[in-house]
Structures are given as C-alpha cells and as structure tokens.
Amino acid sequence: MPDLNTNFTTRVNRILEDNFQELTFESVKIVFQLHNDLDNTIEYFLPSGRVNGTPGQYISGQLERREKIFVRTPDIISELTLKGKQPIVLFVKEKE
After folding, report:
1. Quick one: 57 exposed, middle or buried, by C-beta within 10 A (0-12, 13-18, 19+)?
2. Most buried among 25, 58, 59, 83, using CB within 10 Å?
3. Could you count the other beta carbons within 10 Å of the beta carbon of residue 88?
4. DSSP for 46-61?
5. Distance (Å, rounded) from C-alpha 63 to C-alpha 70?
6. pLDDT over 50 (residue 1)
C-alpha cells in the first residue's frame, strides 16, 4: 500500500481542525427530572442544590404519584461526577 501524499494528509488535518469542535466540561451543569411513578408518595432529601430552580441546602420534600421535580446539582457535584467520584446527590425513599 503506498504512503499518502503529505499534502493530502496536511489538508485533511487542516479540515478537521477547522470544522470539528472540542468538547470541554468547563460549564457543565447536571440537571435531572425526578418523576414519582410509584403507587405511593415518595420522600426526597437533597444535601445541596436546586429544586425547580430554587436553591437551597438540606432540601426535603414529598412527591405524590405522577408528580415530578427538576433537580440541579451544585457545581462541585457536577465536577466530582465528571471525575468519576460518584458523589451522593439525592436520597429517595417511599413514604412509610
């Protein structure tokens, strides 16, 4: 198999550099939706973050069947998650 012409490989590399974006994690925010699909009420506890856009610490509440909330983790949790540290974000249990 013949070697590729250096002009060709230079042009391909230039096209790739000019047209592909790099992915960075500088401003990643982790947001997820918690949807109660159980038959009973659930209780949740969030050490820190935002629930439905409202920030706080030690946030607790209940979700009735079919209710949902949006949870956004604090920046440090997002960073730890991206580094594979598996931080605890949310506690959820069925109401007794």
Report:
1. exposed
2. 59
3. 9
4. EEEEEETTEEEEEEEE
5. 12
6. no
Strand pairing class (54-63; 91-94): unpaired
**Burial level of 83, CB count in 10 A (0-12/13-18/19+)?**
exposed
Cβ atoms of 32 and 7 within 8 Å: the answer is no
Which tokens go with 52? Answer: 């439905």
For residues 1 and 55, the model is more confident at: 55
As given in the structure block, the two tokens for residue 42 are 């659930």
Q: How far is CA 24 from the centre of its chain?
A: 14
